[in-house]
Protein 1
Amino acid sequence: MRWIYKYAWKSIKQNWIRVLFVSLGTSLGVMLAVTLLLGNDIANKNVEKQVIQKYGDYHLQFGYTGNDTYMDENDIAQLEALQVAENMSKVFLPYPVANDKSLVGKPVYWGVEADSPDMQAFSLVTGRYPQSGAEVAITEDYIEREGIQVGDIITMPFPPYSEKEVMVVGVLDAPEMAAMGHSAYFPIQWLQEQVQKEGKVNVVQVKVSDTHQKRWLVDEISEKFPDVKIDQRIYMDKAFDKLHVMQPLVYSLGAIALFVVALLVMGSFYLSVRNRMKQWALLRAMGSKISHIMSIILIEACFIGAIGAFIGIVMGIGAQYIVTEQMNEWLGIEGGNHTFTIAWELLIIPFILGVTMAVIGAIIPAFIIRKIKPVQVMRLEISNTVLTSNKKNSFYLVLVVIGFVISFFGPTMENVLGFNPSIIGTTLFAIGILCLIPFFIQYLVPIIIRPFEKVIKIEAMISKRHVIQYRRKAAISVAILSLGFMLSITANMYVEGLYEGTKQGLQRNIPADIVVRVPIEVEHRESLPVEWKEKISNIEGVRELTAFTSTVPTKLTNYDFSKADAEWMAFYETRGMDYTEVKVVGTNMQQFIEMATISVVEGKELKEPLMNNEAVITKEMAMNVGLNINDTLSLAKENGEIEEAKVVSIIDKDIRREGSAVFMNEEYVQTTFEPVGYESLEVMLEDGASVEKIKDEMKRITKGHESAEIINSHELLVQQQQFLSQITLLIRSLVVIISIISAIGLMNAIVASIHDRRAEISMIRAIGGTSSQLVKVIVMEGILLGTCAGIIGVGGGLLFSTGVLNAMELHVVRIPVIEIVMLLGVSIALGGIAARIAALQLKSFSLHDTLKELSA
């Protein structure tokens, strides 16, 4: 078996130029995969580091905010028994509310455990964290104000008990999101003893082992401790939102890059295998098995994959080091908080995948050898060009048509099938287009060459004949370039469609200039304080404020649900939901419909405030429940009392996230249904008012309620545009690499074509043909192939993107004409450059040497 390895190594050395170029193409694909993987990992680490520095290393906290309300060890044991917490840190606050004169001007006292994530979110300026006994670490501002130093013994009050002497062991730098101003951290057990509250805690900070269990844990805490305040720290989750959105794209682009590597290797080995048919036939005639010959090819592929993967990893590390700064800037990671570290275990994955894709790419060409009949090969009865049968072309054309029809009419077919089949259609369309590359080349080349035939007739005629004759050798490289262009055009149209859809969605769902609201994840537990409405209304520049009270759950009683929509009821029943539940919301309907451009479908015009017991519902709710104008609703509150409301108007839509509800007069809802606060405050500004200044005032008002969102639709649109720009940049990076890989493939294909025609080329040289004429012929071939790739990629991309946008229910905004022209120019240039490089070997051809080689 050693001869197999020796033969493979000899073949690699003899074809070192081909091996070099294919390895380079492989390295580019692996480089992109490495850059994406490392970038994703580094971004995750940097964001996690910054989040911990800002907020502390825990996912939620709960407890009591008043004095003299505590949990004990038994309560904590109940939560620990749930076994979902990775770490549960107890906090003791003896004075949540400073109700004693001796505490005025003093820092807030925190009793914490030695590994408290809250305390460790404070970085040490000097000293250490407290460990046991009468030790304290205090924030830097208070230390500087009082002129205290580490090691000083200071006296601190502990009302109603006597003052105590404690040693200052550390100075702390408060993080950006610190809950309190000045803080003093004590060992929890010592602090409990000083105020005689042994075993008592009023705050618990939890880090869950699985973030998906966070919501479930919140429900369990609410059930066991109904009166506790729960902070789900939604702002931490939002810090990772960009990463979560980008991860599927990152992995998809990496997969596409490696797939292109497999195509490049496949094209290269297809040419290599066919050019060495006589060698394989001779080996077979000498008794070698098919498996031996296939092993030689796969060993070559492993070598190429390993070399390419290694070079790609080195290049990927360098590329990632360069782009790390830009990535951190986009993610909002502050200077000094980012690091460039390499997770070496991640590099094993692209290395293995690079080798694997090279082997996969070589397997299909290797199977060609199974059909070798040595006698026929030696008699030259096997042609180097195998025409695709008309039946196959017809099949692929039908596949393209069916795929396009399915993708274009996907939304319509969804009503029948129950799902949108557009993505299936686009996949069939792409497969059909790529498989028809030889067919397209055959019919496009005569059309493209016509203008050149009038200028350089002989060269154009020879180029046309050669491109058509050897089109299958270049098919995979043309397919790679076409695929890249299809991705580029699709990405461009997708990004523009998504941006326009986002813009329209924001205009429809967030019509106000600024919205203050509770995140949807916690709105069933939290609300905005009532006093915020007046404070925000009084901000200079605020023209109008529309408030929505927090929803009040009621049940629709004494109602005949036989009038309701059967499918809607079945939907609720199958999911265990109560279709009799109706949510009451109080608001000023005049302001609401004016702000959100809502139309009254039926009933009285809402030009005056609603009277008590008058209700407004949406068209959707009316259709689902079967309600009509003047129907009376009997709404049962949680305490069993029933309030009646008469439907006076039906509106066409609702901008609220929770969907349909019963809208009533705000003051009436406040007094009758007693909501705990507001769900959202929709603010309209005066013309010329400073949005940033008003937002700063709102942040001052909402300080201490980190979960409250202050949303400006314009800022959201800018953020979305920045995000989409990053997506476009990543996809264009992939397209650039695909284009380079395709150029390498075209170069290999043209080199193989020249090698097959060496007798013809040598004969032309012998009868007086100049090298410049031959170079023109070869360059013209490259331009023809590049132009074909550009036309197929652009045309296929326009049709493919239509299907993709339909699958995602987006609309075509415009045809990217400038990008199309650029892509066509790039494709022509790539083909010409690849051919010009391949033409360099023409200098070594001579009739004598060629005839001598062929006769041998």
Note: Residues 693 and 720 are 22 Å apart (CA to CA).
Protein 2
Amino acid sequence: MSIRVLNVAEKPSVAKEVSRILSNGSARSSRGPARFNPIWEFNYSNVEGHPAVMVFTSVAGHLMEVEFPDGYRKWHGCSDVDLYSCPVDKRVPQDRTDLKRQLEQLSRQCQWLVLWLDCDREGENISFEVMAVCRAANPRLVIRRARFSALIPRELQRAMATLGQPNANDAAAVDARQEIDLRIGASFTRFQTKQLRDRFDLSGIAAVRERIQQDGRAPVLSYGPCQFPTLGIIVQRAWEVQNHVREQFWTIHVAYREAPTAGGGSCVFEWARGRLFDEAVAEMYYEICEEAGTAVVVSVRGTTRTRQAPAPLSTLEMQKRATAKLRMSGERIMKLAEELYQAGFISYPRTETDVFDPGMDLQGIVTEHTGDPRWGRHAQRILSGELWRQPRPGGHDDKAHPPIHPTRHSLGEHDWSHDKRQLYEFVVRHFLACCSKDAVGSETQVEIDIGGERFRTTGLMVLERNWLDVYPYSGWGGNDNLPKLTVGQSFVPSEMRLRTGSTEPPPRLSERDLIAKMEAYGIGTDATVAEHIQKQLERGYAEKDEGALTFWPTPLGEALISGYCRMGLDDLWKPDLRGKIEASIRDVAAGRVSKDQVLQEAIQFFRADFLTAQQRAGMLAAEMARFLPTAGGGGGGGGGGGGPPPVGPLLGTCQSCGGSSLVLTRGSEGRYVAVCSSTSVCGYRLALPRAVADASVSSQPCGRCALSGGGGPLMRADLRFRMGQMPPGILQVHYDNGGGGGDDDGGGSHDGGGGGNGGRGRRGRRTASASRAAGRGDGAKSRSRSEPAAARARGTRANADRSGGGGAAASAAAATSAEAPLCPRHNLPCRRAVSRSTANPNRPFFTCGHSERAEQDSCGCFLWEDQWDGCRVAPMRNSGGGRGGGGGGGGGGGGAVFASAIGGMHGGVGSGGGGGSGVCYRCQQPGHFARDCPNA
């Protein structure tokens, strides 16, 4: 007795092609409630031993979406932080109810359900969505999973013969990722948009301007857990390029041209010392060589070299190679690859696998291409055994799909675009290349001596091109016309001179390099990397040079990353954390951890970051003001609109935004507050304790805030407390307080000078211990909400752990030490050392003393002892430091100078990247240039 089987594919085109192949072209089509998803019907002889009537339809990607309940979907319907704890629903949205009704109707008419969704994690998750809808309509359905990698007869027939069960772990992994991305993305998107959209004029960004013209207002400033680390990579490279300071170097250039009668060979020798950054030393060596005049050959070595054929093609490797060689974007490549797959010309294009199964008939695939005029001759040489070699494994196997390879030969269909022809040709040529032998060459290395200085040159002659013959995207070669030199032979160089040059910044970030970095950090999946890159352009966060295929951040994109860096939330834009989350999701797919465990850890971590972001929102707005004009007025940090600025005596420069004034005034309730004059942009506000009866600005600067290195000096505030209402630990009614901080109800952060135990009516400075007692009520809260930015950077938990809780007193004591300056990151005395370099012999210098404890925690600060003026060591220009590191932390590090990628200098932001202006070319350590290198 025949059974009726409902088959569901992921796309209508796949349903049509599978029906055509399995029915031998006899499938009949009809329409149901979902008019864009036809229903195909045909007979099939054997479904696990049963004759069957096959009913084939499709969905269109995900059938369901993860969303918040209705009460949480409105932006002002709940507190943003509630999005981390509220329930989430997975349901069919309104625009897919027709698909749901069609599946329900067909399920009631069938006994079996076969799932033909794409064979990756995402497809497995969609399978469970389809199962949920179909089982609700018919709980008695027998469910099977078809797994296939190409839309060709042999592959589909194999899938029908090996039906299995859907993978619940893969589906759970996608559920975990969707929920994490929803909670984090929604909360930070709302936070960014509410804080920034209406404050700043974004019309200068082309992509944003287009959205404004369409919608009438600036778009949502979206945050994505993969999107922002991708943007962070782009901004990081821009900072490295912008921060680079060219450094001059010198090298000795030697060339030799053989006489035509001797063979006419020529070569250029490279100096074994490479580059020198001291002109006098370089000239000395050059004069030695010039005096010698004659070169002596000291060694000639010949070796056989091989150039490996490429490994089989995975998705990310296809994107990296094709973007560079075919000059197409990753998004375009994936769109064309999907079309080629659905038409049956290549295998499934979303795979991490770069290893062919040993049992796969690769020579059968090669056979289909022997008649092609472009690569047929090479295919014939493979089949003859002349070039055949089993493809080398690349080391990755997702156990779902084989590497990308051609499944059908084509000379190029008449309706194919030029790009599609190019991509198909690339896939075929790559497959034939990986089935071919390695290329073989002969390399000759020659070393000469001139006056005791060594110079080297290398020549290469390709003997067997092999796979290179069919793969025009790679070259291999070198100087194949070296002079015929023998050991002991002497000659006079044809050319010898001292050349000068300068170091170059890293190149702008190419799409190939961006994809490679995302792959290395685990940002996104092989199927979503191109999508994350495209979002940078759509959101107006980055721009792409279509000619060079390189990326550069827009002022909006750079401002957002710089703002999170300023808030000390590097985890939210640096790639490491997202890579860890992706690794946890892979563990869910492998069954090593549960979905709930991964969700709990991720949500707990990001919720803490979100609360910090809310507390430091003024820093984000202030950083945006450095890059973008305020809405309805001029640009910059002064802010515009939002009411008159507060009036009162000036305390100094606001330590939160670093650009506006900090004013002492009285709030509406009569309570004294220290508030930033840029209320619309920064919004920094510090309420003094209610016990303060009177407050005035002293003529003396705050000693502690002077150490913080923030936006500028702060003056002390003289406070007089009400009788009987003094905060704990304060022994005077009249007290002069450093204007550093405090929470809304506590004593805050005070200057810990000397002082006595004066009576209730006496005025004087209290002791450091009394200062700590008054401000200890809620230490962590007080730090995060109230202290100036640079002071918070010093007060992170990592510093507290290292210093043993010495707090302000320890910092002040260290700062006054006459023996060594403080390093900017750890607030510890620097270590004194002596230079071993030839340029600066025995010259003493200071460097981070923390490197003696843990090298990875060294901030890399550097200062010659004879240049120390008694102040703390200035931090590196590009010294990052995330949460708990002084350069980033709450305020970006005291006194840090940073070159913006859009031009101009501003303080308090560390990129955490390399390649900045303070990195030694010789030893790659920060803090000095090569000419001053103490490690030379």
Note: The chain has six domains: 3-166, 177-243+509-622, 248-308+440-502, 330-434, 644-792, 820-826+851-869+873-936.
Protein 3
Amino acid sequence: MHIVDINGQSIRSYGVVSLPANRQNTLPVDISLHVSTAPFGSNVIVGTNALGALGFKMFDESNLTKIDFEHLDETEEEMTQVTAVFKTVLAPRSTTLVPVEINGKYLTGKEAILSSSEKENSEFHIEPGVISSAQATSTVPITNKLSIPLELNKGEGIGKLEVVKEVIEAENTLKLGNTAFVRALNLTSNEIHDRQNQIEQEAKQAIKSKDGESIRKLEEAIGVYSDIFALNDEELTQTDVVTHHVETSDAEPIKMRARPMPYALREKVAAMIQDYLARGIIRNSWSPWASPIVLVPKKDGTVRFCVDYRGLNSVTVKDAFPLPNIDNTLMMLGNKKVFSTMDFMTGYWQIRMDPDSIEKSAFATEKGLYEFLVMPFGMTNAVATFQRFMNRLFEGILNQFVFVYIDDILVASNSFEEHISHLKIIFERIREAGLKLKIKKCCFLAKELPFLGHILTQEGIKKDIDRVKPILEFPIPTTQKKLQSFLGFMTYYRKFIYEFGKIAAPLFRLLKKDNKIKIGEEEKEAFETLKKKIAENVVLYFPDFDAAQKDPKRMFIIMTDASKLGIAAVLCQPTLEGKIRPLYFASRQCNQAERKYAPTELEALAVKFGANKFAQFITMIPTRVLTDHRALVPMFKKKGETGNLRVDRWIMELQSKFILLLEYNPGKNNIVADVLSRNFPETPEAMDQIKVGMITQKEPEKESFVNREEWVEATEESEMRALVQFFKERILPDDPREKQQTLAYAPFYTLIEGLLFRCDQNTGNLHLFVPRKFRQKLIEERHSGVCAGHLSAKKIYMQLAEKYFWNNMRADCSHTVAKCRICAYTREPRSNQPGLKTVKTSEPLELVCLDVLEIGRSRAKNRYILVCVDHFSKWTVAEPIPNKMAETIARAFVENFILIYGAPKRIHSDRGKEFVNSTLENIT
């Protein structure tokens, strides 16, 4: 029996049972029920026919009309026939709106339910519904169940009617809402039992946990949601949430002939087509479009049926819906402890084609033309459609605990209990969408599992060794195509290989357009080094963003390195125990221009590259940057005033986007080298010797004249004594004003071994508070000390402000410098800069001013304009010229100015090369 729901969706049931049912105080009536595990939302769903037999009425809430059903006697059937008005052809396996005529005066003016005849019709099916017999004709949706066109003759009987009788009052009224879509299987009770057992067995294999309670809860959940798991292709269903549309604009249909098919595969292809027809995957087509099929053999000896849609794809308007970034997705999994992955059963085929696009999916075979009713593989926008559907399906929870890349679903949680709850949410959404998972490809409750070519663990990600093994046996490439394959694979895992760009540079050079593949010693070394690096068991740990923001000891660290070949950066983060662990490796080659940079510029470029590469991690988070290039540290302190325009520009760019704390990392403590060898320091001692550059959390150096005990004592007696007392004893002053001031200052200060520091909120620097008795000595030491140079008050203030602070520091510096006698005796008097002289002329042609203006290439291939202006009269001549060569300038000036107006006495220009040359001098 072929069953469809109200939307024309094919229905399969496990079987039909006849059960006695009765309303209270009434005799039992036998009703037929289909058995299914589909998500109805209730244990039993009763149809309108059964409700009518039981004497119930349906209450339509929208208009408060109560109706019941009155079945017509068999003798009245001839008066309630519905027949076709015209001769109509029904397309195969599709629904067509057919005009029908209602024959029977008995129904005039009444509402009636249209349904198929009790005698099963194996050719077509009528969608049940209420129609009005007030008019003699109506339109009815009829589904052709055959794979060939079906013809309905004029006057041919189609179905029968049941009268709807209005009732003013009725007892036992039952309110009916929307029922769930019925997607069941036509199975016997034994087959139902076998299927349930098979799902249980598959689930046991898919569950990777050893926690008994978690296993029990998940098995219960899988039992409740067993309808979302498909065991074979026959259980495949389609969702109604989205359809795949192919937009070709005004393009003419593309028709390609069927390709010759190997004789040995003809029977297999014919069987596959018949199977697809029977399952409603494809149908016969009369489309003007046609694409050829392609048969791809699988490893198990079967054949994959594909369609070559390259012709269609060439005229399809591309869908720019973005795919998730795999690296970003993986880095979102920090602190997750339990993982599950799920895969759809032929995911593309669970999405219907848009009715307007079905004909464009047509494909030609030796047997005829067919078209897909579901989204086929190979269409250019299929991936975008599926990803958009996944984003919509998991809206609100996406990238929180569910992560999706096309049809690969990952669920990640912090505990088993939380994970079971998350899985139930996912199962429910999949059920609501009417989708099916392939349980054989699912993996549940794992602490470590493969995902997108990586191995996910509780600590981080590793390379999937099974994916890496083939590349370890890769022979030395002899063609550019083979080399591209090798480098393409290595590039996917480049985040695991420090200085990948530098190592692979010799191989990438062979990919240039005119280069021939010539493997020398340098290329062989690069090839073998990459294979060695890819085999290393490197773990990239998950970032802890909360710790990076709240704990200064666990800030993100970027280590950089640079050379003429390439630049590299490593993103790291210390653990609670102080171990520095890598999160991400990044590198690239230097281009031709960058290879000419000075060492300092290359090191600055590496910092810029690392910061931008790791922007997703470090934006708005203070980050330490370690460089082994000492000269770079003071350049970052000057904030764009280094004298190197290129480095200045990079520094200003970085400071506007990130909070970078640049520090010098001596060569003997080169942790980047440790990263390269994968030997990270077990303790932070190695970091202790890092000298402070731009920003540090370390205590500033004391001046030579300072006694520590005296400094601490003076701090306790200074104007900051209330704050010091609060830090030492947690006691607030009695005075309300001082109490309020102390509480306001406390978040920005800290006390270290009796010394008071203020933390700069913008940079993170610690500035030492200077008691009043040491301020004058400190300024004099910097201004007129043994190593001082009697600098200005502004420069003295800038030097002191890097390490120290006190109120009115700038004014104290100015006052001390102003009293310096040596400065007063040796200071040169200020002299005014001479102003510009006014150019005066008394007659025309006394002075002519020339300049060249660039305007871009015109249709006449002119790129510049020569402008000639007489200084006295302001007479201007502008002449377009193709270039700025001396001969071109001279010719244009002579022909368009001198020959017309005469030669000038003097010529004024900006002394560019086009004006200062022998050619123009000879003319003048």
Note: The radius of gyration is 41 Å.
